[in-house]
Write a structure and sequence with these properties.
The chain has 320 residues and is mostly helical. The protein has helices at 3-38, 44-65, 85-99, 106-111, 117-145, 158-183, 185-188, 197-216, 224-227, 235-255, 262-279, 287-319.
Length: 320
């Protein structure tokens, strides 16, 4: 097997592992509340069909409007490089961490294998900003509305649930599109920067199939991060979570083209939300119950960051 064939093989392996890891790990950030609040109402394949239609639109719209590049410009600072075995190893590590329920940042773990230390530093700074801003915005939003959104004791009237459900499907579609425009870079990094129609068909089939598996599994183990938070199974709360998350991602999408960890934004959002709910709960949901939850999520993020930094240092100072 010559070098060119090996390079192509590593690129294919990296692409498939990254695709599964991104869909299995990161997509639950955007689709988790959607799955949690709709899995009892709709069959999984109806939910999958809705999510897949947005996925295909995002893929092909980005390809058509960005000169064949599906990363939406997120890879402008990361030039194309021939894929080596250690590049393909990164999503494999992510896959293992995903299976034990750790919300690792795919952006750090995958792109760190390709990025320079300078770009990795910029990615980290932007992600920290995302975590902080998401936590602050979520705290302010839920501090203002938490008392009116105790759906466990004051559920949405039956005659209004259909309107909230329509609103949730719309906000989830908006969020899913915004999130994909960030995280498609984590998969596109293994592919040519300009994709042919044949490649687009392959990518579409792979993504759609993997997404079907995630809906069939109802989110997998990473879904527990969503389910353990307050009221995320309720359609009204899920709609507001999705809407706030979508606008934060949209802000950072327009901010610059440096990739960022959407995982950190998502965990920051849930952190601020839980703190706000505990603040206004009049003692029924105490802060001492919140800190172990958000602390565990933060620790898992740090594990992923540590692995990512180890990978990039190993590549730049040992393997190359």
């Amino acid at each position: 097997m010559d070098v060119i064939t090996l390079t192509s093989f590593y690129a294919l392996v990296g692409f498939l592992l990254a695709s599964y890891s991104v869909v299995g790990n990161d997509s639950v950030q955007t689709l988790g509340t959607f799955i949690a609040s709709n899995s009892q109402k709709f069959k999984w394949y109806y939910l999958w069909a809705g999510a897949t239609s947005v996925l295909l639109f995002t893929l092909w719209y980005g390809w058509a409007t960005n000169g064949g590049d599906i990363s939406y410009g997120r890879l402008n600072k990361i030039p194309y490089a021939e894929v080596q075995w250690y590049h393909a190893l990164a999503p494999g590590i992510l896959l293992l961490l995903t299976r034990v329920g750790i919300p690792v940042s795919t952006t750090f773990l995958v792109l760190s294998a390709f990025a320079s230390t300078f770009v990795l530093e910029k990615m980290l700074v932007k992600s920290v900003m995302g975590y902080g801003l998401a936590a602050i915005v979520a705290y302010m939003v839920w501090f203002a509305i938490a008392k009116q959104l105790n759906e466990k004791d004051d559920p949405v009237p039956e005659n209004r649930k259909r309107y909230w459900r329509v609103a949730q499907w719309c906000t989830t579609g908006f969020l899913w599109y915004t999130w994909l425009s960030h995280d498609l870079a984590n998969i596109a990094v293994y592919l040519p920067r300009v994709l042919s129609v044949e490649w687009m068909v392959v990518v579409s089939l792979v993504f759609s199939t993997l997404l079907a598996w995630i809906f069939y599994e109802r989110g997998g183990k990473i879904q527990n991060i969503v389910l353990e938070k307050t009221n995320t199974r309720y359609v009204r709360s899920a709609t507001i979570v999705d809407l706030v998350y979508a606008f934060i991602l949209l802000f950072f999408k327009q901010y610059n083209d440096i990739p960022m960890s959407t995982t950190w934004v998502f965990v920051g959002l849930l952190c601020g939300r839980e703190l706000a709910i505990a603040t206004v709960s009049n003692g029924t949901y105490k802060l001492k119950s919140v800190f172990p939850i958000i602390g565990k999520d933060f620790l898992k993020m740090m594990i992923g960051l540590g692995v990512s930094i180890a990978i990039v240092l190993c590549i730049h100072y040992v393997l190359t």
